[in-house]
């Protein structure tokens, strides 16, 4: 070996070392450092892209201001600096799959910056972006697009006031599956549209605070007509979520959604509706009714398999809820939350269901009646189809004693965990058929 070789004295150069060495070194860098490397040379760019893909592989990017931080999907990269945001899209935009861009019509960001972000999205992210969330009406993204976003499946529009009829969803997002719109208010310019490829629709808000008091009734009717027309124009929908407190359930009257499989409505329900006039859905299998103060459930189903209901307003399992469960003989799963009382009244109804497989009850009681602890194991001998019963308990007393008693049975066997749980409860007990 020639120790005097000049090659031994040459300084190391990142551009000349092999790719494996580059990767080992770059693994210590954060995304800001990778951005700097990517701009240095083509060789370093390729290595930086590889490391970025591995470290931030889910591709969830937030470009946000001081608002809404932490409110949405946890990002892999969170960028506040405008220059870095543009630089990241330019270098790693082809690796971004989920983008949340927050600004309210330039109130927090200059219009020029919004314009550049949308241009960069169109240029660098059109082939890889799958989920897009915006808190502002797009300036050019939907109107002057050069390349369609062929992989986008989900679009969330927050605080929305612009007329969606102006946006060519079908041509720009040919594979759109889910559209979620969070209205800050309804606009007189809102015009329902048909989006043939859309399978899931979620609408939230629908307040009328921008209209005069004298115009409230007309405005409410206006909103109901718009929503109903939006649904009528999209009979292909398979999933529908409506969280519209100012809208009445009359929008379902004479409405045909033959492909609908999942329904979750939050709105004003008619408490005087007759059984014969209830809204019927032939193919819905999943029905979620959250946070309602009602006296009946104005829906009927032919093939319902899953029912989720919140007793938040009533605190107890009301007779109309039990009646609804009883009349849906094909139910496989029943989930009841915010239950304060009446758990035992559920058990006789469950024995009427020949297909029930899973039951979940979340309660805020300090004390669970001893009869409840005994009835749960008995259900498994009475209902042969039952596979799982979950009890979520908040603020339970005599914790150790309850666990000891519950876990004595071997069939069904009971397992437990003490943590936040699905509903923020302190204790989760699950009975499983052996």
Could you explain the architecture of this structure?
This protein has 434 residues and is α/β, with parallel strands linked by helices. Among the domains are: 21-55, no CATH class; 305-434. It is built from eleven helices and 18 strands. It has helices at 19-26, 31-38, 42-55, 82-92, 111-124, 169-172, 216-232, 319-327, 346-350, 370-382, 399-406; strands at 60-63, 77-79, 98-101, 131-134, 154-160, 178-183, 200-204, 239-248, 262-268, 279-281, 286-289, 299-301, 306-310, 333-339, 358-363, 388-393, 413-417, 427-432. The chain has a 16-stranded mixed β-sheet with strand order 2-1-3-4-5-6-7-8-9-11-13-14-15-16-18-17. A two-stranded parallel ribbon has the order 10-12. α1 crosses α3.
In short:
The chain is an alpha/beta fold. It has helices at 19-26, 31-38, 42-55, 82-92, 111-124, 169-172, 216-232, 319-327, 346-350, 370-382, 399-406, and strands at residues 60-63, 77-79, 98-101, 131-134, 154-160, 178-183, 200-204, 239-248, 262-268, 279-281, 286-289, 299-301, 306-310, 333-339, 358-363, 388-393, 413-417, 427-432.
């Amino acid at each position: 070996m020639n120790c005097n070789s000049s090659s031994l004295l040459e300084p190391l150069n990142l551009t000349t070392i092999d790719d494996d060495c580059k990767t080992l070194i770059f693994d210590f860098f954060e995304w800001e450092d990778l951005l700097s490397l990517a701009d240095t040379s083509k060789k370093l760019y390729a290595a930086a892209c590889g490391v970025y893909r591995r470290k931030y592989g889910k591709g969830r990017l937030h470009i946000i201001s001081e608002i809404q931080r932490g409110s949405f999907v946890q990002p892999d990269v969170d960028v506040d600096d405008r220059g870095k945001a543009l630089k990241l899209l330019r270098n790693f935009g082809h690796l971004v799959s989920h983008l949340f861009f927050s600004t309210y019509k330039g109130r927090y960001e200059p219009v020029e910056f919004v314009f550049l972000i949308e241009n960069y999205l169109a240029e660098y992210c059109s082939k890889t972006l799958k989920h897009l969330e915006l808190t502002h009406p797009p300036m050019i993204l939907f109107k002057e697009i050069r390349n369609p976003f062929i992989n986008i499946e989900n679009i969330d529009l927050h605080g929305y006031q612009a007329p969606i009829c102006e946006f060519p969803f079908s041509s720009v997002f040919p594979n759109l599956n889910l559209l979620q719109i969070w209205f800050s208010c309804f606009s007189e310019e809102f015009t329902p549209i048909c989006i043939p490829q859309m399978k899931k629709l979620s609408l939230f808000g629908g307040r009328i605070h921008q209209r005069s008091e004298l115009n409230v009734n007309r405005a409410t009717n206006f909103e109901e007509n718009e929503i109903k027309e939006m649904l009528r124009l999209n009979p292909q929908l398979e999933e529908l979520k409506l969280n519209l407190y100012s809208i009445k359930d009359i929008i379902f009257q004479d409405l045909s959604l033959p492909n609908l499989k999942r329904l979750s409505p939050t709105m004003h329900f008619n408490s005087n509706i007759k059984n014969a006039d209830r809204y019927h859905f032939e193919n819905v299998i999943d029905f979620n009714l959250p946070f309602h103060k009602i006296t009946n459930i104005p829906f009927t189903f032919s093939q319902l398999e899953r029912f989720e209901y919140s007793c938040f307003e009533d605190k107890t399992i009301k007779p109309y809820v039990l009646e609804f469960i009883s009349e849906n003989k094909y139910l496989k799963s029943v989930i009841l939350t915010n239950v304060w009382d009446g758990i035992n009244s559920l058990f006789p109804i469950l024995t009427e269901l020949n297909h029930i497989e899973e039951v979940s009850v979340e309660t805020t009681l300090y004390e669970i009646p001893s009869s409840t602890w005994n009835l749960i194991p008995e259900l498994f001998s009475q209902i042969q189809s039952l596979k799982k019963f979950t009890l979520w308990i908040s603020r339970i007393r005599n914790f150790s004693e309850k666990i000891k008693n519950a876990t004595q049975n071997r069939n069904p066997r009971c397992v437990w965990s003490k943590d936040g749980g699905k509903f923020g409860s302190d204790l989760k007990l699950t009975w499983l058929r052996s």
